[in-house]
Amino acid sequence: MTVLTRWHVGPWTTRGTLPGMPLEPGLKRTPDELNFDIVGLARILGRRLSGRDELQVRLWQNELRPTHTRQCGVHTLADPELLRQTADEALAWLAERAPAGYEFVRTDAVELRPLLDLTAPVVAVDAVIQLADVHLPAARLAASHVRRSSAGDWYAGDAVCRWSGPHDTVESAVAAVQAARTELVEQLTAAGREDLAATAPRWPDVPVS
To answer: What is the pLDDT of residue 1?
Structure first.
């Protein structure tokens, strides 16, 4: 089974209204539109559908997908059950491929969250930072992943910002994150959180995408 390496903590879909709640046109998807986004997310990340299922997705798209003339948060299906089931299957597919130390959960969006179990075989740096609940200057870079720019340089950052770089090689970008992780261990110890610092040997490798 392939585990996702392209990742970021937080929402991976747009926000949607929960079933039974008032719709928020222009702000949040309807429950049906959110289910369609979940199906689409799994397809983008590699889930394959049969030809018949692909046709069904196109039919849903015609009914639900907002365009420049169609506002989001308005459109629903007369019979949403099949789409709901398909979204549940897509979410289960995503859950099986969450990066080590993380889980996909559905709230009013599909979100990737760190597992907060310090006894787990893999403890995400994001989990340690969240549980520490103190200012840790190294945290931002220590929790970064490494990616390549269109110009060929390497950066360390999150889904939006670059915190280190450009680097000439992927190895130097990864080394910058690892150095920040070393500083993070020192800062956790200084803050009296030796329990969190002790999880460092179980932190996952620096993600590279």
So the answer is: 64
